[in-house]
């Protein structure tokens, strides 16, 4: 049975191009399910019944596992059983028959434009300060994930056209616009270290910066300028998406900028847009409840 799991993970890597993090998540879910069913005497996948899958889901619920995590685990199981059917190991995908708990869609945490300006306040002229400002400007301007930011090379920057070539999720490339402020910040930083090729953002050891370093830097800058919320890099991406949508009302363009496969992933930002609208209404409309 473990052989089929290994084959499925290889399929995700080679045929589907899934990231190593996604592969690990799938493998963890399947390992947990494997331990559960083998403890009841199951020795091959064709012996797994709908009742056993349902019992596993009930066990996760009784353990008070987050409904979102249960939903993800069931998605993993459905994909795996579909793989087994397509590979000839099974005739029926019993996992399709199991319903999963509904989850309330949580709005992504974001920060305001004024807080972005606080984060990019310059305190000195050191190369490190110019690097940190450039990182924040680029992440916010192009709505980057932190993994996409640290992977940037100077060859990925088109200053003339104002675009970045981004190696994103699913090992796919996309192009995202970059604003004038971010371009200015990038050039100032590049001039300060006299570097115009290779990795864009460097650590103190003159190596490509890590995601953890970026996370700590943004958190520390937020505390330094007096932002009370726990700011992390992904909030800059959320802020970019919601601010762009609020001004353009063009969901498809936001989808392209974020690199979302499905428009459904982008639609969460419409909720942020209406949330902002309600705040303005409450503040200025004469009929609003104060």
Strand order of the largest sheet: 1-2-3
Unreliable runs: none
How would you classify the helix and strand content by structural class?
A: mainly alpha
Q: For this structure, what is the CATH class of the largest domain?
A: Mainly Alpha
Q: What kind of sheet is the major sheet?
A: 3 strands, antiparallel
Order of helices and strands: HHHHHHHEEEHHHHHH
- Average pLDDT reading: 86
The figure for the number of domains is 2
Number of separate strands? 3
The CATH topology of the largest domain, please?
Answer: hpI Integrase, Chain A
> Quick one: overall form?
globular
Which homologous superfamily in CATH is the superfamily of the largest domain?
Intergrase catalytic core
Terminal Cα separation, in Å?
62 Å
CATH architecture of the largest domain: Orthogonal Bundle
Helix content: 55-70%
Classify the beta-strand content into a percent band: under 5%
Radius of gyration: 23 Å
The DSSP helix count reads 13
Structure explained in plain terms:
By secondary structure, this protein is mainly α. The chain has two domains: 2-97, DNA polymerase, domain 1, CATH 1.10.150; 113-283, Intergrase catalytic core (hpI Integrase, Chain A, Orthogonal Bundle). It has helices at residues 2-14, 20-38, 50-62, 67-86, 113-119, 127-142, 146-150, 180-193, 211-224, 233-248, 251-258, 263-266, 268-284; strands at 157-158, 163-168, 172-177. It is globular, with a radius of gyration of 23 Å. The termini are far apart. The model has no long low-confidence stretch (mean pLDDT 86).
């Amino acid at each position: 049975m473990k052989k089929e799991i290994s084959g499925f993970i290889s399929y995700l890597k080679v045929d589907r191009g899934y990231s190593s993090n996604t592969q690990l998540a799938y493998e963890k879910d399947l390992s947990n399910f494997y331990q559960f069913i083998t403890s009841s005497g199951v020795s091959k996948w064709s012996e797994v019944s709908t009742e056993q899958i349902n019992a596993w889901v009930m066990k996760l619920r009784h353990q008070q596992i987050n409904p979102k995590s249960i939903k993800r685990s069931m998605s993993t199981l459905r994909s795996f059983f579909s793989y087994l059917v397509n590979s000839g190991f099974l005739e029926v995908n019993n996992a399709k028959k199991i319903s999963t708990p509904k989850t309330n869609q949580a709005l992504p945490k974001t920060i305001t434009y004024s807080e972005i300006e606080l984060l990019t306040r310059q305190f000195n002229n050191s190369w490190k300060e110019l690097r940190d400002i450039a990182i924040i400007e680029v992440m916010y301007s192009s709505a980057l994930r932190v993994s996409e930011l640290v992977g940037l090379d100077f060859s990925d920057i088109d200053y003339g056209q104002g675009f970045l070539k981004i190696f994103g999720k699913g090992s796919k490339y996309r192009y995202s616009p970059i604003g004038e402020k971010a371009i200015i910040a990038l050039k100032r930083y590049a001039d300060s270290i006299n570097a115009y090729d290779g990795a864009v953002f460097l650590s103190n050891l003159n190596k490509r910066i890590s995601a953890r370093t970026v996370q700590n830097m943004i958190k520390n800058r937020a505390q330094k300028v007096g932002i009370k919320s726990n700011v992390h890099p992904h909030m800059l991406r959320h802020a970019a998406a919601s601010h762009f949508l609020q001004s353009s009302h063009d969901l498809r363009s936001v989808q392209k900028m974020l690199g979302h496969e499905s428009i459904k992933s982008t639609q969460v930002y419409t909720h942020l847009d209406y949330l902002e609208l309600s705040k303005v209404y409450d503040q200025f409309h004469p009929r609003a409840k104060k």
